[in-house]
Write a structure and sequence with these properties.
Length: 320
């Protein structure tokens, strides 16, 4: 038993170099009541543009406040905006020049109607590239894509923190994820399950800085099947598709009781390798390796866990 402790202590020292800390952003309640609405149109063909990206930024610090997509008739409405400060409304549509306008909604009006926004087609330029603000989201075919770089978060933020900032996505404490009320059946990374497919292993371990976009789409199990499932795919940036992450925990109490865990994971586009170890004498026994990976995730949040002390057992049981 002493040799086992020595080996496990060595693992802790080795793994500890890979551990990094998390940061949780407190969310405040938005009590503002201002709203903005308008109609996005093609100025030449005089027809509406559905699924145009409409984003509202605060002029003072360029921070993103709200965003939406225009409906099938080109109309949009964004609510919950602050009064009496300069705001910039930015409209993006593929194949058209970006449209910007400064607005200032007063409490006396409450609603600001821009009416018609005429979009101008962009010329095809082969040698010149215009760099502008990244739109927070766009509709790519049947897939809704959220651009990670459009959301300003702490440098220690992970995918879970990013998804909490996206309206319509709710991260529940038991690991369930819903998008506009629909349960997400799978969370993939680069189109593949991530270390067993538990969403928390991906959302609580992958840093936000490594993410290019979050894709949300409906997946049909069979062609022509009317039943669909909602799936989320995390697309990583170029140069960030290889990664290494881990976590180490150790506790010691009275009566020489101890509990030690360690996890190290490596992934690349072709391979996923996980090394997980536990050692304790407090009657904690995992059902399988996936329970240990879930417990050893970056944050380890949740109202229940499959790896906890079983107080119904008699005597002192040791697992290693």
């Amino acid at each position: 038993m002493k040799d086992c402790k020595t080996i496990f202590t060595g693992l802790i020292i080795f793994f500890s170099s890979w551990v990094y800390s998390t940061h949780c952003d407190a969310q405040t309640v938005d009590n503002s009541k201002a709203s903005v609405e308008g109609l996005v149109m093609d100025t030449a063909g005089n027809y509406s543009l559905p699924s145009a990206t409409v984003a509202i930024y605060k002029v003072s610090d360029s921070s993103l406040l709200k965003y939406s997509l225009s409906d099938n008739s080109g109309k949009f409405m964004i609510t919950g905006l602050p009064f009496s400060i300069p705001l910039m409304i930015k409209i993006d549509y593929i194949g058209y020049k970006t449209k910007k306008q400064i607005i200032n909604v007063q409490p006396s009006t409450s609603n600001f109607n821009i009416k018609t926004i005429n979009m101008v087609r962009s010329e095809q330029m082969l040698k010149e590239v215009e760099i502008s603000e990244i739109p927070p989201m766009r509709l790519n075919g049947d897939t809704l894509e959220f651009n990670a770089d459009a959301f300003k978060l702490d440098s220690n933020a992970v995918v879970e923190d990013l998804m909490k900032k996206i309206p319509g996505i709710i991260m529940w404490s038991d690991g369930l994820i819903t998008v506009n009320g629909k349960t997400v059946s799978k969370v993939l990374v680069e189109g593949k399950p991530f270390f067993g497919g538990d969403a928390r292993v991906a959302t609580q371990n992958l840093p936000k800085q490594s993410v290019d976009k979050i894709q949300v789409y409906e997946n049909k199990s069979l062609e022509g099947d009317i039943n669909t499932t909602t799936e989320v795919n995390i697309v990583l940036k170029k140069g960030k598709k290889n990664g290494l992450f881990g976590k180490v925990g150790s506790g010691y109490g009275t009566s020489k009781r101890f509990d030690q865990t360690a996890m190290l994971n490596f992934f690349n586009p072709k391979t996923q390798v996980s090394i997980t170890g536990v050692l304790n004498n407090v009657n904690k026994n995992a059902n399988n390796i996936y329970s240990l990976m879930q417990y050893s995730s970056y944050k380890g949040e949740g109202i229940t866990t499959n790896y906890s002390s079983d107080f119904s057992k008699r005597g002192l049981n040791k697992f290693g």
